[in-house]
Amino acid sequence: MHNLYFAGVDVGSLSTDVCIIDQSGKVFSEMVMPTGVNGSEAAERAFDASLKQADLTRTDISAITATGYGRASVAFATGKTTEISCHGVGAHQLFPKTGTVIDIGGQDSKVIQVDTHGRMLDFAMNDKCAAGTGRFLEVMANRLELDLDELSNPLNIKGESAPISSTCTVFAESEVISLLAKNTPREEIVHGLQRSIVNRIWGMVTSIGIQGEVTLTGGVAHNRGLVALLEAKLGLSLNIPDNPQTVGALGGAHIACRAYHSTLESSTT
Amino acid sequence: MNLSIPERSEYLKILSDSDQKIMGVLPALYPRELLWAFDLHAAEIWDPPGDILHANAHLQTTICPVVKKSLEFILKEPDVINTGYLFPHTCDSLQNLGTQVKDLIGVSLPVYTFYNPKGSFNNTTTKYYREILQNFQSMLEVSYGTLDSEKLQAACLLGHRIDSRLMDIQEARQTDRLLLGNQEYFQLMRAQEYLLPKDYMSLLEQVEILDQPSEGAKARILVSGILPPSPQILDFLDKLGVSIVADDLLAGSRRLPKFPMDPPDSPLDYLTDRFFILPPCSTRGGDLDERLHQLNKRSKSSKAQGVLFDLVKFCEPELFDHRLLVKTLREQKIPVLTLETELDSHLSGQDKTRIEAFIELLFEMVPR
Q1: What mean pLDDT is predicted for residues A175-204?
Q2: Which of B40, B106, B214, B346 is the most interior residue, by most CB within 10 Å?
């Protein structure tokens, strides 16, 4: 029997991510590209690049799940699923004991409880403000004239931290400007920003609770300082994927695979 | 099924042009039959269209959009409202708005207030309610002459017929015997806010109730909150194949008695009894356990698989109840989704994602 391939295409606000797997779940390609202003074109571009990386053509792909805020714009997808479900399935594939997923995305953040198949049981989502998201860190990095890597330096979590609002990105940026004007050390400001995101996540965690192992997804999982603070706040170790940005796309690819076989089974019975 | 429901502003304009006396009524509970008996038409103001501009000069930013939009509407002194405004004591914000409009801002039309009792049925609250009904009657008599008791009796009978028909329609909705999508169903419910009672009764009589259940919707949910979800949300739910089979809305079933009443004998007794058998409500300081009980009961009878809370931003009474309701429903393993909306706001991509994710959760749409 020839190999069957499945893809997940996650069109997010900042990046478009693609993952291609075969029916055994082996990953053949992971691609992250900026979304830009046109989600549809970004999906085409990232999918083609991913196919090239995997040395495959479009006809080799049996099913494709589109996810992310731009999922409706992916014309070539065979199915659409929200990123909330996709992150649950993706995190479960990487860490099978995952009971809770914390996804800090570009424009929103989510806490998702999943069952033993990675299927969502409950979720909380923050989207009223970019506070507590990847975009928040981008804005602040720009204001502090740091790149995102510099903003992710692990800090002594007991070190000094500047007080920064966790409710509004615009207010927080004003606070950062005031702190800079007072010559507050940048590392204290960075620490304060990371603490601000952690406090925002904590609010969602307390609303639905934590169960099982906790997996952190989304690009912000690269921020080591924030991960350390979040682990201290939760009192546990987080599972951090090697490629936290593509977990949604990975989940999408697995959902495409499950849906393909489920349709096949129902058509043969 | 296509119901012909007149558009609100056009309908009120036609009434006003034909010299119908129209009173602008703020949400939510007021003795409508008493107004009808004085030939006054109660046109409710919940979410009048238009941007909020001038009202912001009089109100704090943390006041709910129902209050802000109502004030914006009142400040324009619209021609269709030609006899006055009535402010029931639904919440502190609306009560204060009544005072502000009457004593501070000042409008050319009279302003009436109606202070509904808070708390449950007992001797004191019923006695109080009877008194405020009589006071309200006396206030109206100053402007509109002595109340004709036969007219009040007829108004109560018409109100009773409307309630009975609405109960039948609600029951049919829960049991899939109504061929109306979410959008149409809530247009029908909200038409009572501005149609003359006789026109509304005619409309209700046009609604076809099937003898047998039709093919049920793919997904069934109960919606709770103040106002029905926005037309954009209702349309989105229709497209997803999700049916709102029951509600716990202030602008919906919380204005309908919990059980059928006998036809009115003594009008004031009838109005008093009716008020105290309305379902528990956050705006009346109702018993939260009883509200939860009603919510569970309605959820079971309609076979709803989850509860959608659609909250109006800064609605304090509802927000006080919401936290405990959600906590208890979650403990009972009933899926819950909360949306917080501002009136007139579009349906954001994030809200679409929340709703779709909720549907995926309810129907285990992700294969194992």
Answers
A1: 86
A2: B40
Report the pLDDT value the prediction gives residue A140, as an integer from 0 to 100: 80
Is residue B279 within 8 A of residue B294, CB to CB? The reply is yes
Judged by DSSP in three states, A34 sits in strand
Per-residue model confidence as pLDDT tens digits over A43-74? 999 999 999 999 999 999 999 999 999 999 99
- Residue B21 forms beta bridges with which residues? B40
B334 in A contact zone (CB under 8 Å):
no
- ipTM field: 0.87
Closest CA to A201 of A213, A184, A218: A218
Size of interface A-B (CB pairs under 8 A): 54
Using a CB–CB cutoff of 8 Å, tell me whether B353 touches chain A: yes
| CATH label of the domain that carries residue A35 | 3.30.420.40
Q: Is A194 inside any structural domain? A: yes
Paired tokens of B94: 């609306």
The terminus-to-terminus CA distance of chain B in angstroms comes to 38
CB-CB under 8 Å, A85 with B353: no
What is the C-alpha to C-alpha distance for residues B170 and B175, in angstroms, rounded to an integer? 9
Q: For residues A139 and A233, state if they share a domain.
A: yes
Same domain, A110 and A235: yes
**Cα distance between residue B137 and residue B140, in whole Å:** 5
How many angstroms from the chain centroid is the CA of residue A153?
20
Within this chain, do residues A82 and A130 fall inside the same structural domain, yes or no?
no
- Which CATH number fits the domain B8-145, given the four candidates 3.40.50.11890, 3.30.450.20, 1.10.8.420, 2.40.240.20? 3.40.50.11890
Rounded distance between C-alpha atoms, residue B104 and residue B111, angstroms: 12
Same domain, A55 and A104: no
**Across the interface, do B368 and A119 touch by the CB < 8 Å criterion?**
yes
What is the residue range of A21's domain?
Answer: 5-86+246-268
Regions of chain B with pLDDT less than 70 = 1, 216-217, 345, 365-368
